[in-house]
Write a sequence for this structure.
């Protein structure tokens, strides 16, 4: 299967860096001290890299919640980050459950520069089931509730419904939330009958810092809470997946046509799909080497093979077995390490890191030396292939771990 050589592992960060396009905006100068720490980081060790800078054009809404000081922080069921290879940075968006805010701001993080950059300052704060106290920035246009700056007026958690499409250089977001949209439209003087009721898929373009809503015609999938959106290059688009009472299916979105197609996974046999496919709250990633989606849902591990169009539950774990980590989109994150070919899962509550070998279908808890992982309650994490590091961010405190594949 996919076993990179030692030379490939050592060269990969430089190849990835060289593959970037022109330096993205904002231009962020790398910090020599940070690069030195990353260069000296031995496999199996972790290190605190320091406090990140926070930059951007901060408006009054951002400053009210001191985002210019803290960066975005983790936001309840919004902790997924998406690597953008063409930018050499990782992207983040999505809302809290309601405390202290519900904002549609967009951020990216540059590890070498140790900097959070706000790409889109938030529009007005939203309520839990409504558009908030100040709706002066909202329009009802072409069936969509949209802000005057072009952002989503309804803003959701991401769960695992966030992915990056490198071909279109777009961050794609299934923006499903409980907002009473009919009442909101009526309050704005619009006709609720004109609401678009298909999946609320949005794109954010980091290069231009603009949003775009999609309005796919039927047939289309149900936009449930806790589903998974994942770009699969071999399929030429992004899959939206769910397996519960609301929807049992894996659908493929065609970006150019803005259409959806039910892939009818597992031969279209609902019982088999229900038995084998990952349920909501799953976390996971696409492995381009093996051409495989890998998911962890609670203590069970699932694979999806796009070529076979088949889901398989490959491991069944339990809380007490000590062999499998807990996968949950509000408590843990899971990313692909293309350098080792393994998956890396961070479970925040236990401050633990686990690796997953898809070939051996085996998990391993990592023991590491060096600085301990930050312990804050609003952490984020991602894998940075440009620097070969698993990164945990607690506000502006940044920690990195270099995985040692066994």
């Amino acid at each position: 299967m996919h076993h990179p050589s030692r030379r490939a592992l050592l060269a990969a960060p430089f190849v990835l860096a060289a593959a970037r396009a022109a330096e993205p905006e904002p231009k962020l100068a790398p910090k020599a001290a940070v690069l030195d720490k990353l260069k000296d980081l031995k496999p199996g060790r972790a290190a605190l890299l320091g406090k990140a800078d926070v930059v951007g054009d901060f408006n009054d809404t951002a400053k009210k919640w001191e985002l210019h000081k803290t960066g975005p922080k983790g936001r309840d069921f919004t902790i997924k980050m998406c690597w953008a290879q063409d930018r050499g940075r990782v992207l983040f968006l999505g809302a809290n459950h309601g405390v202290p805010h519900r904002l549609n701001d967009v951020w990216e993080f540059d590890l070498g520069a140790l900097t959070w950059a706000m790409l889109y300052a938030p529009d007005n704060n939203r309520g839990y089931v409504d558009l908030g106290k100040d709706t002066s920035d909202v329009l009802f246009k072409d069936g969509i509730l949209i802000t005057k700056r072009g952002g989503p007026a309804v803003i959701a958690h991401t769960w695992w419904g966030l992915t990056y499409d490198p071909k279109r250089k777009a961050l794609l977001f299934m923006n499903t939330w409980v907002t009473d949209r009919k009442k909101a439209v009526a309050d704005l003087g619009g006709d609720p009958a004109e609401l678009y009721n298909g999946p609320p898929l949005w794109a954010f373009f980091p290069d231009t810092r603009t949003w775009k809503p999609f309005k796919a015609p039927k047939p289309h999938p149900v936009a449930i809470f806790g589903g998974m959106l994942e770009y699969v290059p071999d399929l030429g688009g992004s899959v939206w997946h769910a397996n519960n009472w609301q929807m049992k299916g894996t659908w493929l979105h065609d970006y150019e046509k803005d259409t959806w197609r039910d892939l009818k996974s597992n031969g279209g046999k609902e019982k088999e799909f229900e038995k084998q496919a990952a349920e909501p709250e799953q976390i996971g990633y696409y492995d381009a080497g093996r051409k495989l989606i890998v998911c962890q849902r609670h203590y069970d591990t699932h694979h999806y093979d796009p070529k076979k169009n088949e889901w398989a539950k490959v491991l069944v774990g339990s809380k007490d077995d000590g062999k499998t980590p807990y996968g949950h989109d509000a408590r843990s994150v899971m990313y692909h390490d293309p350098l080792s070919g393994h998956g890396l899962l961070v479970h925040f509550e236990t401050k633990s890191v686990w690796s997953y070998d898809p070939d051996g279908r085996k998990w391993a808890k990592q023991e590491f030396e060096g600085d301990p992982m930050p312990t804050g309650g609003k952490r984020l994490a991602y894998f940075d292939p440009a620097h070969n590091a698993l990164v945990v961010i607690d506000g502006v405190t940044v920690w990195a771990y270099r995985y040692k594949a066994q």
Q: What stands out?
A: Confidence is low (pLDDT under 50) at residues 1-20. Residues 6-18 form the longest helix (13 residues).
